[in-house]
Amino acid sequence: MGDNDSDGTFLASAAGKPAELASILAGRITAGQYPPGTRLPGERELAATFRVSRGTVLDAVAILAQRHVVRTKWGAGTIVLDTDEASLAIETVLRQADHERGNIRELRDLVEPPMAALAARRASPSDLVTLHGIIDHTDIRMTPRESLRMDMAFHLALAESTGNPLLAALLRFVNDSAEATRAGTHSTVTRRRVSLDGHRAIFARVQAGDAPGAQQAMLDHLRAIGGMDVLGIQPQQPAELKEPTKPMEPAKPMKPTRQARGER
């Protein structure tokens, strides 16, 4: 995809272009193309690159500034900010915590449904573009690893759409600590389809601004994944088969009795 290409616009309103441009720039920042402390390209350069007006660029930068991704400083341009200090602090604490699977499951059950409700109340047009883009680029024919990566990206983007950096830190912790064991939830096409359908249902409620519906959709999603599979726990392997016992030798034919021979 070239610099002049976008990820696809689904918003019909005029807010679509700034929101989409903000989403693209945020994705490049996350990917490391614009590291923390560096400057984004200037307004004219971005406008020429994406073939949009300077007003659209300014609106996109304003969206990123509202999300504390960048800071515009007079005479210095638009600076990419480092990760929020509060997020770093809580991530440090969580990394030291017990990573038992049951604890992760309880954390998700307690945090993610109300988080989805909060996202429905607060998600910006840019957040909706990001969430829609992740769903649009998810395919049940992906490898389990690729599908898992998109799954984690969706849940993290949903957390980030709440505008609360601590929730985003919690979801990064969940992703990091459970990644090794969550592959089971994407091991088959059926499981990948269930996961994707759940994401679509959640997004529909978030896009509609339906907080109770988004919370219920997340609950349904976690339940649909199924029990311990919410954590990606692999099914137990069948017990090792024992060597088959030696087959019994066929019984030797019995000698006919005198009665059978017609003797008296």
- Biggest pleated-sheet summary: 2 strands, antiparallel
**SSE run:** HHHEEHHHHHHH
How many domains, as an integer?
2
Basic shape = globular
Q: What name does the CATH topology of the largest domain carry?
A: Four Helix Bundle (Hemerythrin (Met), subunit A)
- The helical percent reads 55-70%
Strand order of the largest sheet: 1-2
CATH architecture descriptor name of the largest domain = Up-down Bundle
- CATH homologous superfamily title of the largest domain: GntR ligand-binding domain-like
Mean pLDDT: 76
Q: Compute the number of strand runs.
A: 2
Q: What is the helix tally?
A: 10
Beta-strand portion reads under 5%
Pfam families: FCD, GntR
Organism: Bifidobacterium thermacidophilum subsp. thermacidophilum
InterPro entries: GntR_C, TF_FadR/GntR_C, Tscrpt_reg_HTH_GntR, WH-like_DNA-bd_sf, WH_DNA-bd_sf
GO molecular function, one term: DNA binding
